[in-house]
Amino acid sequence: MNPPSAVESRSILGMRADATSYPAASSQVLAWARAAESRYVAVATVNNVMEAYDSHAFRGIMNAADLVTPDGMPLVWALRLLGIRTAARVYGPDLTPCVLEAAERERIPVAFYGATDAVLERLLCFVRHRYPSLKIAYAWAPPFRALSREEDLASTTRINASGARILFVGLSTPKQERWMAAHRGRVDAVMLGVGAAFDFLAGAKRQAPRWMMRAGLEWLFRLASEPRRLARRYLKHNPRFVVLFLAQLCGLREFR
Question: Which domains does the chain have, with CATH numbers?
Answer without folding.
Answer: 8-202 (3.40.50), 210-249 (no CATH)
